[in-house]
Amino acid sequence: xxxxxxxxxxxxxxxxxxxxxxxxxxxxxxxxxxxxxxxxxxxxxxxxxxxxxxxxxxxxxxxxxxxxxxxxxxxxxxxxxxxxxxxxxxxxxxxxxxxxxxxxxxxxxxxxxxxxxxxxxxxxxxxxxxxxxxxxxxxxxxxxxxxxxxxxxxxxxxxxxxxxxxxxxxxxxxxxxxxxxxxxxxxxxxxxxxxxxxxxxxxxxxxxxxxxxxxxxxxxxxxxxxxxxxxxxxxxxxxxxxxxxxxxxxxxxxxxxxxxxxxxxxxxxxxxxxxxxxxxxxxxxxxxxxxxxxx
Length: 295
Hints:
Elements: H1 2-52, H2 56-74, H3 81-84, H4 87-100, H5 108-128, H6 141-151, E1 159-162, E2 172-177, E3 189-194, E4 205-208, H7 238-250, H8 260-268, H9 270-281, E5 285-286, E6 289-290
Antiparallel strand pairs: 1-2, 2-3, 3-4, 5-6
Helix pairs in contact: 1-2, 2-4, 8-9
GO molecular function: ATP binding; NEDD8 transferase activity
Domain UBC core: 141-286
Transmembrane segments: 30-52, 82-101
């Protein structure tokens, strides 16, 4: 009986000593980890803010991860955060982390690039105005794209481009087409181009300034070309349109007409159509309609 009592007392004393040592070790561990955590947290946030221009949501995420790490290590049975952290800790982490995730934020690199672009644009404007002249008008996206299209033009010898208002007005220009084959061989046809500021998201407005007997061009100069209507795409360019216009003269199409009388003659009697074209280009009449000489 005495031996059992003594063994119980010894075991109880050993348990108490063990608990005191464990609590003391835990307290010491927390005291050591807390300053390290504070230093790490401060360093991390300074690094994120200075080098990466971190947003508040990014800092919130970093703080919540630091909190998760600290709570898991400070737990009495630390070392297994995903299994041992109490449910309350997990709920706190979820509440803090997920609202702060930067799902709608631009990446820091994107923000920096936008800022850099604005700085360079401002520097360019200042440089252009350094000689005391009037402020230079900023080019629209449509003008920039059109300038690129013009510099990359690769036209046949039968096509030419001109700027009646000067090179300062790129949005309005003219194209002259002189077909070197087909029904319209020897003719000269002038087209006007009016380009929208939102080009290339909207096709240019093209008119034929030369009155012509043609199934796909009416007497008011409207042009039936699919890429100027429903088939227009922003990947197309001015070069594509000019080649399309040239193709209308080498291979006129009676299936999609604007001048229905000319289309019917082309379909039913190609020889008569050719005769009508030559007469119109020479400055004569086709039916009751007169045409200016364009040869």
